[in-house]
Design a protein that fits this description.
globular, 0% strand
Length: 254
């Protein structure tokens, strides 16, 4: 999923990636220049992406500046063009980075759950257990993860503003996850796939996690919590599990 959007086929290496010559004895073995240059280039690319995710998440595509991104990444401005082809190419690369990391952490588990649903192997009981597992994993990724605030700021801003990465994030990140949760709720409540109530419930469950990512200061202040350590994360998961247990278990739920 990671790719080099808009990388120039040729061109000078950015100043940040040039290596200074070193005095090395003639008898010393020479390092492999291609491998070393590639590693250094990947490190530079990573620094740019991390800085860009913070800047775009805070200011959006329109408000972010490549000058600030370059400064935070410790590179010169031409490096952004060399690696990403410009501001919008860098923005799309940030979206692909988020999707790639999400898939790396979640894809195996989500695929297994999807197969059980598609092959009609899931029962209401196994679907309920799978839904709890999916929500627990989303909490770990979106709330407890080291970069969760940065990622969620980027994703939610892009979803709201519908910029150049909207289709990518909606089709590869947002919609498949909500669809899976809605289908699990359909299985739990024995209603046809695509019914409105399970889709609404899925949206509400997923959207509730933003209270502890983008709106974390508000949530912490309201709950009088000072931090979101392991004990607090466990509390959040327990409340979500109780919400899953209540699906289709109370009269008039549908």
């Amino acid at each position: 999923m990671l790719c080099r959007a808009g990388v120039a086929a040729q061109g000078p290496q950015p100043e940040d990636d040039r290596e200074l010559p070193s005095a090395r004895p003639k008898t010393a073995p020479r390092p492999a220049p291609v491998a070393k240059g590639y590693r250094k280039g990947e490190e530079t690319r990573r620094r740019i992406l991390e800085a860009a995710l913070r800047e775009f998440g805070a200011a959006g595509l329109a408000g972010a500046t490549t000058r600030r991104i370059a400064h935070e990444a410790g590179v010169n401005l031409p490096a952004l063009t060399y690696y990403f082809g410009g501001k919008e190419g860098l923005y799309l690369a940030c979206a692909r980075e988020i999707v790639s990391e999400y898939q790396r952490r979640m894809l195996v588990m989500l695929t297994s759950v999807r197969i059980s649903l598609d092959q009609q192997e899931a029962t209401p009981q196994t679907a309920r257990a799978s839904l709890k597992l999916v929500l627990d994993s989303l909490v770990d990724l979106q709330i407890a993860g080291r970069q969760s605030d940065i990622w969620m700021s980027f994703v939610l801003r892009e979803i709201a503003e519908q910029g150049p990465a909207f289709d990518l994030l909606f089709e590869q990140l947002w919609a498949p996850g909500v669809d899976l949760i809605a289908d699990l709720i359909c299985c739990i409540s024995a209603v046809p796939p695509g019914s409105t109530a399970p889709r609404l419930q899925a949206l509400l469950l997923v959207s509730s996690l933003t209270a502890f990512s983008l709106a974390r200061p508000i949530a912490l202040n309201y709950l009088k919590w000072t931090e979101l350590g392991p004990a607090r994360i466990a509390e959040i998961k327990a409340v979500l599990a109780r919400q899953v247990d209540e699906i289709a278990s109370t009269p008039g739920w549908r």
